[in-house]
Structures are given as structure tokens and as C-alpha cells.
Amino acid sequence: MMRRREALLSRGDKVFIVERRLFDQDLRRHFVGEVEACTEVAFRAKGYPFFYHPTTQNYVRKPKPRTRIFTFNGNLIINVLPRDCDVESVNYLASEAGTTLTDRKSFELDVSDPDHKGQAARPES
Fold first, then answer.
1. Contacts of 102 by beta carbon, 8 Å cutoff, 6+ apart
2. For position 52, what pLDDT does the model report?
3. Tens digit of each residue's pLDDT, the chain (125 residues)
4. Which pLDDT score, from 0 to 100, does residue 33 have?
5. b/e for 52-89, b at 16 or more Cβ within 10 A?
6. In 1-125, where does DSSP find H-type helix?
7. What's this model's pTM, rounded to 2 decimal places?
8. Predicted pLDDT of residue 54
9. CB burial class (10 A; 0-12, 13-18, 19+) of residue 13?
10. Hey, is 116 helix, strand or coil?
11. CA–CA separation, 44 vs 49, rounded Å?
């Protein structure tokens, strides 16, 4: 009899995903969302993609939510966020101290790039 393995992620989990770049010129892409479904090899999440805009030196959030499917592979860094994190409010906040991902309520995560600390980006409104 085959037992089903426990899923790494569950419906309702909040995630912050960083897509690893293969080359320096590759676009820096992040995603913040809520898991809708999960299998042993992939999961579906609804949320907001972000990309790094070199001119403004800040991450820009796409205005409309998207549903994406991610596979558990070596190209993703998946951070599990607190369940009470408000995905609708998450954005980047830059200061002289670095860059923080926050919902401005109960969740904050320092996402400063060690190579760029001290080169603060203008906060996104």
C-alpha cells in the first residue's frame, strides 16, 4: 500500500518566491501570493509578480493579480510567509538601511541584496 507524502505547502499558505537568475542581465523576478493547490512536484498560487526596474532601482509590482504554476526545482527560492500576511498589501519599502518586503501591518522581511546595501531605492507608493 502506497502512502501519500505530506505536502510541503498547503492551500492557504502565503509564499514569497525569488526566481534565480542564470545570467547577470536576466530580469530579477519575484512573486508574492497564496497557494491554491499543491502536489509533490508543483503548486499553483495567486498573487502579484514583481520585477526589478534598473532605472528606478526598485522592485515594481504588477497591478493585477495572476495565477501561476511553479515547480519545485533548483531555480526557485521559496519563502513561506506568515498566514496572516496580507498579500494584497505587500510591497517593497526601501531605506538607507536596505530593502524590506512588508504588508505594513504584521509582516516584514529584509530582502536587501548584500551587494547593494546602502544604495537604497526610492520606496514604491
1. 90, 91, 92, 93, 108, 109
2. 87
3. 444 556 789 999 999 999 887 777 777 889 999 999 999 899 999 999 999 888 877 889 999 999 999 998 878 999 999 999 999 999 999 888 888 999 999 899 998 876 654 444 444 43
4. 97
5. beeeeebbebeeebeeeebeeeeeeebeebeeebebee
6. none
7. 0.81
8. 82
9. buried
10. helix
11. 14
* Alpha-carbon span 23 to 105, nearest angstrom: 35
**Residues in Cβ contact with 28 at an 8 Å cutoff, skipping those fewer than 6 apart:** 21, 51, 52, 59
Q: Three cell numbers at 124?
A: 514604491
Q: How many residues comprise the chain?
A: 125
Supply 49's cell numbers: 509578480
Read off the amino acid at residue 11: R
Q: How far is CA 88 from CA 40, 51, 64, 85, 109, in A?
A: 27, 17, 10, 9, 16
Q: Name the nearest CA neighbour of 43 among 82, 9, 18, 77.
A: 9
pLDDT of residue 6: 65
